[in-house]
Write a structure and sequence with these properties.
mainly alpha; single chain; Non-ribosomal Peptide Synthetase Peptidyl Carrier Protein, Chain A
Length: 83
């Protein structure tokens, strides 16, 4: 799954997810309250926290569909940076 930093950061952009409610990997982020402004702010926060840059091909709505998809893209960027 993902690390705590990712979940804590993501939860800050999901106003419809209760504090005690588990974050399911297949949850639709839009249904949890992630709007377009939040997506941009989340992107900037992830880039800052993980010291990566999302490329144009990773900026589509598909990337921000679910936590699992977002984590997969992010973790591949982190792995590329480390290589």
């Amino acid at each position: 799954m993902w690390d705590k930093k990712f979940e804590d950061l993501l939860r800050g952009f999901l106003p419809f997810l209760g504090a005690e409610e588990p974050l399911a990997e297949d949850a639709t982020l839009r249904d949890l309250g992630l709007d377009s402004l939040g997506t941009v702010e989340l992107l900037a926060a992830l880039e800052h926290e993980y010291d990566v840059r999302f490329q144009d091909d990773a900026l589509g709505q598909e990337t921000f569909q679910t936590p699992a998809v977002l984590w997969k893209v992010l973790s591949s960027l982190v792995a590329e940076r480390a290589a």
